[in-house]
Amino acid sequence: MKLEAGMAAIVTGGASGLGKASAKALADAGVKVAIFDINDEDGKAHAKAIGGTFHHVNIMDEQSVVDGFEAARAANGQERVTVHCAMASKRGKTLGWDKENHCYKRLPTEDYAFGAEGILVASYRIASHSALGMANSEPLNDDGERGSITLTASVAAQDGQIGQTIYGSCKSGVNGMVLPMARDLMDMGIRVNSVMPGIFATPLMLGMKDRNPKMWDQLNASVPFPKRLGEPEEFASLIVEIASNTYINGHQFRLDGAIRMPPR
């Protein structure tokens, strides 16, 4: 699929981190980008900087997502590229020690359900609403392609660490969604893929650089090569390639500098 002026894209979580870099990379390719985020200040500023639009969207709320797609399409036209980076989750061990009561306590089912909603259900919500719009649009090329959807998983989908039962299993579910959804949508010419980033220099991780420089150095050293955290622009580069390359479909990409996460 050729990325060009007049084409529209949607990036969730586009106000910061991997989503912010992806939105910029797509805009640099000439695409009109709509940012979905709940961070109004940063989202509006970034949308203005890249010549896109901002829409306050809560990925955990069905109506908010429906309204966001409607507003983005009214502003920019039907999106042909959707990149889903936003998420919400909690963490905790399945069983943890309760120091006050001197016994084990269980990670609440409600905490797991929150993560499943914020990662797995939200990924389906964004992908399926985008696919519906793409399916009702004209093909873009001789292959009959109508669009590309890229979901964000994590290396935790394969290397879930202690305390990542929610995050790891739900990100694994995102990967598990890719192939059957790609097959569901094959007759409509809509591609579905996912990216599993390793440790990236997002604002959350960069905060550690000053708070705990020793741990920061250990994280950088833990990556086989290059011995540093990934740059959001490197994630964004893969996002653009996936959108551009029509033969990439039903695939889950690790982007991690060859790291394999230990138990803790």
Automatic annotation (TrEMBL):
Keywords: Oxidoreductase. InterPro entries: NAD(P)-bd_dom_sf, Sc_DH/Rdtase_CS, SDR_fam. The keyword Oxidoreductase applies. Pfam families: adh_short_C2. GO terms for molecular function: oxidoreductase activity. PANTHER family: 17-BETA-HYDROXYSTEROID DEHYDROGENASE 14-RELATED, SHORT-CHAIN DEHYDROGENASE/REDUCTASE. This is SDR family oxidoreductase. It comes from Pontixanthobacter aestiaquae.
